[in-house]
Amino acid sequence: MAEYVRVAVDAMGGDNAPSEIVKGAVDAATANEQVRILLLGDEKAVQTELSKYTYPKDRVEIIPTTEVIEMAEPPVNAIRTKKDSSIVRGMKMVHEGEADAFVTAGSTGATLVGGQIIVGRIKGIERPPLAPLMPTAKGPVLLIDCGANVDARASQLVQFAQMGSIYMENVIGIRNPRVALFNIGAEEEKGNALVKETYPLLKELDDINFVGNIEARDIPAGAADVVVCDAFTGNAILKMYEGVASTLLGEIKKALMSSLAGKIGGLLIKPSLKSVLKKFSVSSYGGAPLLGLRGLVVKTHGNSKAVEIQHSIEQCVTFQKAGINDQFKDRMHLVDRTVKKEESAS
Amino acid sequence: MAEYVRVAVDAMGGDNAPSEIVKGAVDAATANEQVRILLLGDEKAVQTELSKYTYPKDRVEIIPTTEVIEMAEPPVNAIRTKKDSSIVRGMKMVHEGEADAFVTAGSTGATLVGGQIIVGRIKGIERPPLAPLMPTAKGPVLLIDCGANVDARASQLVQFAQMGSIYMENVIGIRNPRVALFNIGAEEEKGNALVKETYPLLKELDDINFVGNIEARDIPAGAADVVVCDAFTGNAILKMYEGVASTLLGEIKKALMSSLAGKIGGLLIKPSLKSVLKKFSVSSYGGAPLLGLRGLVVKTHGNSKAVEIQHSIEQCVTFQKAGINDQFKDRMHLVDRTVKKEESAS
What 8-state DSSP symbol labels residue A172? Predict the structure, then answer.
């Protein structure tokens, strides 16, 4: 039992639940003998999907739940009231050590809130950041934070830099990852109050490869492996990426369809275009980890297909096998304030 | 004399100075009889360029200057010490009423600093925002602010919304422009402390068409005409736009060149692609206005060609003829705090 990595999977989350989620879970269990999957959701619906496949039955189990948190629900309320939802139950399993990780394509808000109040933080971690990978011309970049910390403090950004570096090194396999601070100019004295306070703190750290400030225009070109920012800025960066790419490709497509030469040319360039789009897809890396928790929570896209679910489960296995949370504790010199308080009180 | 709009132009700023700047100025003077141009720069160099053209000599004048502020110079220091630079002299002309507007492709930092301390703010305007136009699938959007106000206050964002709305209506000709607040979600309660404080203030204004929050991914699709944000966020949005577009188009080009079918297809789609790129170019609108000053300052791209300079000069004419600064004073109900102080002191 102990050698398995136990991944709880929200079978009810996202646009393609439960079919694609169950398929992804089956694919992961089939491809990786080290994983044991706990599928949380409506028992009958999940069983119906499972019955379509042959799979290692001893490593895929259904955990029946009766409630579902919808995308539009106010997260705090949903987490508090829907005790038998797949998200709350899955996170509780991680909190209670019955699972090592939890994967969901469901509500981002509920995932962030649940991670904080159900799974709980590693002692000494100030705030858990959500860290999606973005595609660049030179491989993926980890954008940390895109989660709930919209009014972040410098000390939090420092922890994001450390966690991001350890994650990219161990889970994505980038040696000595280049960690950059997002800013509006390259010079140290540039920026708002937050980044001006953060820069010298990052410069002092000797256990990360801090490469200084990075401007937005250099991110898609691949000038860093980890980009550190508050979640408000991270969200702007991430969603501009999606918005510009989708608008630009849509306009190109429309222009091609408006002339015969464009249509013929469009057919000829299709394979090249597909290769670019494939390069700019990050679903092969899995979803966005919510880091700094006592366990791992991975948030995949709402429209995830089986392949992203499968890779997210594999991401949990790598995370667990590499002992990332132990590395956080050891390498970040985390101070467990609870223990300190108790000690000084005794 | 009074019917002319007098535009001071920095002939020494940007990558293509003085040749493209002088050409743009000549084109503007030729196309528009209402403009009088004051070309600031090295007398001999500017004269050499001017002598290449036939142009209305009574409306194009050289103002000799001896210094140039370089792109990389620390702006505050440059503005203070280079008293005979084209930027400092041009801005002084606006301050002293010898010119109505100033156009420069030079240092953004020096332009922002000079606008504040040489040209000076309209009384009651808290901070002057730099407001570039960005292309969208449905026409241009004004992104206000992308300048120096990286730690903005809610009251400043409210003024940005008002100035942006008046500008888009009168200079770009958008009726009842849709003004949106940049945020990480559509709901009123989302966001960081700044936008949470700003939202209800914008909702209260009855002289702008406030359409609520806008997320980054909806900007390129054209969901608003004016997007209000602090300059740190604005910079992230603007430069992600440039970065994603340039990386994506670069990768597509590279992919096309890697196969024969791609090369042939590439030739066939060239006209379509050009039409898209043209649609996504904003140089036909001129440069980014620095608003709220006693006069107008327009910052064009560093790599501006003659056409952008010409359009920026025309933009100054429209701005002046529409009496935008008077509209700011009247419609924004600006409180002149200096006068109030004097009154209460007497």
Answer: I
Q: Which one-letter DSSP state was computed for residue A117? A: I
Whether residue A289 is preceded by a cis peptide bond, meaning omega within 30 degrees of 0, is no
Burial grade of B346 (CB within 10 A; 0-12, 13-18, 19 or more): exposed
Who's near A191: CB < 8 A, 6+ residues apart? A183, A184, A185, A199, A213, B150, B232
Tell me which of A38-47, B61-70, B71-80, B153-162 is least confident: B71-80
**What is the model's pTM?**
0.92
Mean pLDDT, chain A, rounded, equals 92
Q: In degrees to the nearest 10, what's the CA dihedral of A239, A245, A248, A250?
A: -100
| pLDDT one-digit tens code per residue, A204-219 | 999 999 999 999 999 9
The whole-angstrom separation of Cα B250 and Cα B243 is 10
Q: Where are the alpha helices (DSSP H) in A53-190?
A: 75-81, 86-95, 108-114, 154-167
Sheet with B178-182, strands from edge to edge, namely: B133-134, B141-144, B226-228, B178-182, B209-214
Question: Which parts of A11-131 are beta strand (E)?
Answer: 35-41, 60-64, 101-104
Task: Round to whole Å and give the CA distance between A277 and A280.
Answer: 5
Report the percent of chain B where pLDDT is more than 90.
Answer: 78
Which of A107-116, A284-293, A313-322, B246-255 shows the lowest per-residue confidence on average (mean pLDDT)?
A: B246-255
Would you say residue A270 has pLDDT above 90? no
- In chain A, residues with a C-beta closer than 8 Å to the C-beta of B149 are none
Q: A259 to chain B: which residues are within 8 Å by CB?
A: 271-272
How many CB atoms neighbour CB B294 within 10 A? 15
What's the DSSP call for residue B137?
B
CA-CA distance, B100 to B4, in Å (whole number)? 9
More confident residue, A6 or A345: A6
Identity of the residue in B193, B241, B269 whose CB atom sits nearest the CB atom of A266? B269
Does residue A200 belong to the interface with chain B, where contact is any CB pair within 8 Å? no
As a whole number of angstroms, the distance between CA A104 and CA A130 comes to 13
Residue A60 CB partners (closer than 8 Å, separation 6+): A25, A26, A29, A36, A37, A39, A50
Is 90 exceeded by the pLDDT of residue B342?
no
**Reduced to 3 states, what is the DSSP secondary structure of residue A326?**
helix
pLDDT of residue A336: 66
Token pair 């601070």 is at which residue? A181
A220-260 residue pLDDT tens: 999 999 999 999 999 999 999 989 988 888 888 888 888 88
The whole-number average pLDDT for the span B160-166 is 98
Q: For the beta carbon of residue A76, count every other beta carbon within 10 angstroms.
A: 13
Q: Lay out the sheet containing B288-290: strands in order across.
A: B60-64, B35-41, B5-10, B101-104, B296-299, B288-290
**DSSP at A140:** -
Length of chain A: 346
- Show residues of chain B in contact with A276, CB under 8 Å: 248, 251-252, 255
Dump pLDDT digits (tens) for B44-58: 999 999 999 999 999
**A220–B275 CB contact, under 8 Å:** no
Q: Which amino acid is at A14?
A: G
